[in-house]
Amino acid sequence: MILGALGLAVLALGGCENLPGKPGPGPEVMAPNDITDFETLYSRNCAACHGEDGKGGGALALADPVYLAIVDDATLRRVATNGIPGTAMSAFGHSAGGMLTDAQVGIIVTGIRKRWAKEDALQGATPPPYTAAAPGNAGHGAEVYATYCASCHGPAGHGGPKASSIVNGSFLALLTDQELRTLVIVGRPELGAPDWRNNVAGKPMSPQEISDVVAWLAAQRPAFPGQPYPNAQKEAGESQ
What we know:
Elements lengths: L1 H15 L21 H8 L1 H4 L14 H6 L2 H10 L19 H15 L21 H11 L1 H4 L15 H5 L3 H10 L20 H13 L21
């Protein structure tokens, strides 16, 4: 009787292993917080905007050695964790409501630096400061724009033979002044836009000129983005 009972127990346990719908043997799915592979983290969180290989897309290129030469890891961590309010850059850190742990943000930042930074990216040049020490002069910025930018973006910034409008209201509404400054300094190499050294051959932009042209661009930003006709007259009978 004892042997028979043991046999029935073995059969019952064997039957449990073959229950309908039970997953077969194989690797378990890793919990999101446990992922530590850079390629996986970057692909799932960054590639949609910055490109699969970091070469840029809707957002600037992270695989740009010039950009990585002027931005420090603390800034990369802060932006990845908290995002940039009012722009398309979302917050990815747990502390800001995102999906990534502090450790995962660190893996992404370290991976970006390890793969795409280059020691000789600036070729001996001293870069302008990443952040401005003081506000720029928008009036002088118009002159700076004419010297360094108009040949591509047109005399008033509405587009030219080599580049699109740089004063488009929707474009400016999606970028902070710091983002504009970053673009002026590092350019958009994936789009053929030069960095601060190469807009005019042999004449790199000074830190003050960069601050001034950013101030001029910021002055073109609409007060109410998304309302292209703020001065349009209402038709008769239309509600105000």
